[in-house]
Amino acid sequence: IIPSRMAASRLKGKPLLEIKKIPIICHVLNRAHETGIEAIVATEDKEILNTVEKNGGKAILTGKHSTGTDRVFEAYKKLEKLNIDYIINLQGDEPMIDPVEIVNLNKLMINNKSDMGTLAAEIKGDEVLTNANIVKVITEKKLENNNFVKALNFLRKGLKKENSNIYHHIGIYCYKVSVLEKFINLDQTKNEIKNRLEQLRALDNNIKINVALAESSP
């Protein structure tokens, strides 16, 4: 499920901006389709819904939400799908994400019976550490191919090269359905609001997030 809305804080109308004459949200949906996993856009905006449908995709209209995760859960409930164990939340502004990475995250979640998982990549330049628009994750151990390591924290700034096991966080999550339902019923935490990172709500409530290594950050 791909949450998307027009009222982006930094770039208004971002989902419908075009790359090679295709709206960003449709690029993201195309990447999702390449995984072979059923994909749908969840949005509060009819412009996005109409654009997705016009381009051959599926979309569902939701109410207004303060977070993408709440939007994903409403869409899931409206779909009335039975026997769903895991839901992937793919951010609507990741048009260059590699479908292979999505499939790998899905497999790791199932094989490890994990509650919640995400992706991260090696940091290539020091400027990433100080760029508050790029989210970083600190993991318990070094990320390697096919390991699935516990996340200790997510930050936007205040990091130095000396910090160990820091990675560039990629905007995708996979949840057990039961964990997603628990998550959206928790109150937003001070930590989450201060840092504008909803994944901190999970860590603040002892929901474990596992992190897999992606080959590169899109």
In short:
With 218 residues, the protein is of the alpha/beta class.
How do the SSEs run, as a string of H and E? EEEHEHEHEHEHEEEHHHE
Helix- and strand-based class?
alpha/beta
Please bin the fraction of helical residues.
Answer: 25-40%
Proportion of β residues?
Answer: 15-25%
Number of strands: 11
Q: What does the largest sheet look like? A: 5 strands, mixed, barrel
How many alpha or pi helices?
8
pLDDT average, as an integer?
A: 92
Major sheet strand order: 7-10-8-9-11
Could you explain the architecture of this structure?
The protein is of the alpha/beta class and 218 residues long. Helices cover 32% and strands 23% of the residues. The protein is built from 8 helices and 11 strands. The strands form 3 sheets. It has a 5-stranded mixed barrel with strand order 7-10-8-9-11. The longest helix is centred in the middle third of the chain and has 14 residues, at 99-112. The chain starts with a strand and ends in a 5-residue tail after the last strand. The relative contact order is 0.17. The mean pLDDT is 92.
Write the layout of secondary structure elements.
Elements: E1 2-4, E2 18-19, E3 22-23, H1 24-33, E4 41-43, H2 46-54, E5 59-61, H3 68-79, E6 86-90, H4 99-112, E7 116-121, H5 127-130, E8 136-139, E9 149-155, E10 166-176, H6 177-184, H7 190-195, H8 199-204, E11 210-213
Parallel strand pairs: 1-4, 4-5, 7-11
Antiparallel strand pairs: 2-3, 6-10, 7-10, 8-9, 8-10, 9-11
